[in-house]
Design brief:
Layout (H helix, E strand, L loop, with lengths): L2 H36 L4 E7 L2 E4 L21 E4 L6 E6 L4 E4 L28 E6 L2 E6 L5 E3 L5 E7 L4 E2 L9 E5 L5 H4 L8 E9 L2 E9 L6 E12 L5 E8 L2 E8 L2 E8 L6 H14 L1 E3 L1
Antiparallel strand pairs: 1-2, 1-3, 3-4, 4-5, 6-7, 7-18, 8-9, 9-10, 9-11, 11-17, 12-13, 13-14, 14-15, 15-16, 16-17
């Protein structure tokens, strides 16, 4: 073996050994910091993963190979005490310990418990469901729905399911399966109802499927006359006059938005299933609430 090859092999070996030593040191530091902060109180650690956070389940998860934050996610979050009123800390590589305070606050994907790290195996397998605590509720969503939580800019659960039965959609290219559940009133309900203005001309039509119906046209910028068809909008008002259901359809596809019991829902279907709009709403609300384990 040539001297240059031997030198390269030695350098590579030293790099591997150094990486292992650094990783072991970080794992030890994470453990020491978490135990020092938690004391005798229950705690857990979550790390970036699946687009948001996931519970740290193995020793590898609390190493620098997995604790890599980006965007609004920290490298790791330490949750101390009950998830109903926890104290939250974020991992700082610069400080070498957990620091109080986090962005958000984010959903809690791990269950605080005593001896959290001591019970952690060297390796593990992801469960079939994503478990987290958010908006004062415990959720358990099967991974086949590909769930994620939007907590940085708004409070919403996103998953993928197709009408009419809202079966889980494993196909990431199926954009029509996108479902958005906002915990509160969606600003889309009032803002997406088209009204006659400089750009649109809205014409009334005979009610259909128990909904008010209107035809929306683009207006000619010069004459103000209707020029090109935009969409058909169907809507239902609540007793207080607010829009409770809004459906916008064009080219055979519909986007439906509705509010029920303080949650707002956004999903897609075809004009063929438009007559079953109320059934869609009932099935979707039932599915979303089935994800709630307790509150």
């Amino acid at each position: 073996m040539k001297r240059s090859q031997i030198t390269l092999l030695i350098a590579f070996s030293l790099l591997i050994v150094g990486t292992i030593i650094l990783g072991t040191f970080i794992v030890s530091s994470v453990g020491e910091s978490a135990r020092a902060i938690a004391g005798s109180t229950s705690y857990c650690i979550q790390i970036p993963g699946d687009g948001d956070y996931v519970e740290a389940k193995t020793v590898l998860d609390i190493s620098p190979f997995r604790m890599r934050g980006s965007g609004g996610n920290h490298h790791a979050v330490l949750i101390v005490g009950s998830e109903y009123n926890p104290k939250l800390f974020h991992w700082s590589y610069w400080k070498g310990r957990f620091i109080e305070g986090v962005y958000g606050p984010p959903p809690i994907y791990c269950k605080p418990r005593e001896h959290f790290l001591e019970a952690m195996p060297l390796s593990g397998k992801d469960p079939v469901a994503v478990h987290f605590y958010f908006v004062d509720r415990h959720f358990s969503v099967p991974r086949v729905y590909r769930p994620s939580v939007n907590w940085a800019s708004r409070r919403a659960l996103v998953f993928y399911a197709t009408t009419p039965e809202f079966a889980p959609s494993p196909n990431s290219a199926d954009h029509g399966s996108y479902v958005d559940v906002v915990f509160g009133r969606s600003p889309l309900l009032p803002s997406w109802l088209n009204k006659t203005n400089d750009q649109y001309l809205v014409e009334g039509a005979e009610s259909e499927f128990g909904l008010q119906k209107q035809l929306v046209w683009y207006r000619n910028s010069s004459t103000g006359q209707k020029e090109k068809f935009s969409n058909t909008q169907y809507f239902l008002r609540a007793g207080n006059g607010d829009i409770a259901t809004l459906i916008l359809c064009n080219y055979g596809n519909c986007t439906q938005i509705f509010e029920q019991d303080g949650w707002s829902y956004y999903f897609h279907h075809t004009t063929e299933t438009l007559p079953a709009w109320k059934s869609h709403q009932d099935k979707l609300t039932s599915l979303a609430h089935s994800f709630v384990v307790s509150q």
